[in-house]
Specification:
Length: about 450
């Protein structure tokens, strides 16, 4: 294991352990500007009171009471709720040109990688993520539980446990040398008919999954599959939806192709991931059913630039070209149609910690800055069904809050460079040397 990685993790854990006193005392943040994502407005000179890890009140600073509290001076900042990324892969190693990379790692090594990815993500201001699948089954469950226990720093995680995918489908490890045997731990969710889907869905919930991820179509990054090709029928997806509902949960559907998207929406999934080749009928169906769109509209540029430089396969580069601009055009149409949209980046294809890079793309392709911010705060919470607990600076909610320099409503890029992060009322990082996207070499 890289010694720099070990040092980074040691410092992160030490920082987490040192916050107990910080969290025990009531806190009042003096915010120069505060984004109220519930109302879609910006308030000035606010006092945000935090007790026992939750927001207690938001009042004008002139009305602030309680000299018992520790005052944090953020008057020079714009203050927002902790950000939420609804499409991450924190527990896996970053994408490379080698399709067999997941098989070359070990559970212990994956644990260190996941811990570093989690640290990079939370110090970039993303205090909650929906992690939508891992190759090594339940690695995400273990990471989620370690963060929740306070053993390591990281975002609050909602996890899928593994991919529900067909044999050789978009959620499998493919493109391997002939004769390679893929261990069972990488195939926890493989299912080839509705009955098998039901069995595997229950198996994933029994082992700690929070929701289900179904691979409804082929994938850009999985060799031998095509993004536009459906891999499950509507009835097979519905089987997953019905079983998830019995567990009080939902299904997220990886779906690039138009037919696969419509199959998934009609089957009752909670969200469409990617949505690259969506057509007008699919947009109308999503609007009708209230289905969420989580579209990683930055990723195509990274794959084309870095993938070419690193020698990723011609198949992957070709599929990326065929989906990138179409995805962005469909995203613009979905925004105009009023489809529910939550922020999701597919971090893990590109380096973790730069999750905020996508905000500018969402504004470029049809959103107002406030809509983009809401997609990564209160709308992420709504997608999770946790809007009473998360997603905005409001009494009773988890005290996740970040500070940025400048005005993100006039320059959305400021959200890439977070200056301070508090999660559950505890300090995560303070200042550009600790927070923000990881610098080269970290």
């Amino acid at each position: 294991m890289n010694t720099r990685l070990l040092s980074t993790l040691a410092l992160a854990i030490a920082a987490t352990l040192s916050t107990s006193a910080f969290a025990a005392q009531p806190i009042v943040i003096h915010a120069g500007r505060m984004v109220d994502v519930d109302k879609g407005e910006v308030l000035t000179d606010r006092a945000i009171r935090i007790e026992d890890g939750k927001f207690v009140s938001v009042t004008p600073w002139s009305d602030a009471a309680g000299r018992d509290a520790k005052v944090i001076d953020w008057t020079k900042y714009t203050v927002l709720p902790g950000l939420m990324d609804m499409h991450t892969h924190i527990a896996d190693e970053i994408q490379t040109k080698d399709p067999s990379l997941p098989l070359k790692s070990t559970p212990v090594r994956d644990a260190f990688i996941g811990a570093k990815n989690a640290w990079d993500t939370v110090r970039a201001g993303f205090t909650t993520v929906r992690d939508v699948g891992v190759y090594r089954g339940f690695a995400d469950v273990a990471l989620r539980d370690a963060i929740k226990a306070g053993d390591i720093p990281g975002p609050r995680m909602f996890v899928a446990g593994a991919y529900i995918t067909r044999t050789g489908g978009g959620g499998e490890v493919t493109g391997l040398p002939k004769g390679t045997v893929v261990p069972d731990e990488f195939r926890r969710g493989v299912a080839d008919n509705a009955d098998q889907v039901r069995t595997k869905v229950n198996y994933l919930f029994d082992h700690g999954a929070d929701f289900i991820k179904v691979i409804a179509t082929g994938a850009v990054l999985t060799a031998g599959t095509e993004p536009g090709t459906p891999e499950y029928t509507e009835d097979e997806i519905r089987a997953a939806v019905e079983e998830a509902a019995r567990h009080g949960s939902f299904v997220a559907a990886h779906a690039h192709g138009a037919e696969g998207i419509k199959n998934a929406v009609r089957a009752g999934v909670r969200s469409i991931e990617h949505g690259s080749l969506i057509d007008d009928e699919g947009i109308a169906l999503m609007k009708q059913h209230g289905t969420w769109l989580v579209a990683d509209i930055y990723n195509g540029d990274y794959i084309d630039t870095v993938g070419r430089a690193q020698g990723w396969s011609e198949e992957t580069l070709r599929k990326n070209i065929e989906t990138t601009q179409t995805q962005r055009d469909g995203f613009r149409k979905a925004v105009a149609a009023g489809v529910n949209i939550a922020y999701g980046t597919d971090s893990g294809v590109y380096p973790h910690g730069d999750n905020g890079r996508q905000f500018a793309y969402m504004v470029r392709y049809g959103m107002t800055p406030m809509q983009a911010i809401q997609s990564a705060t209160i709308n992420g919470a709504r997608l999770l069904g946790r809007e009473k607990e998360l997603g905005s600076i409001a009494p009773g909610k988890a005290a996740d809050v970040i500070a940025v320099t400048g005005d993100p409503l006039s320059n959305i890029e400021t959200l890439r460079f977070v200056q301070a992060v508090i999660q559950n009322g505890k300090r995560v990082c303070d200042g550009p040397d600790e927070c923000g996207p990881p610098q080269q070499g970290q």
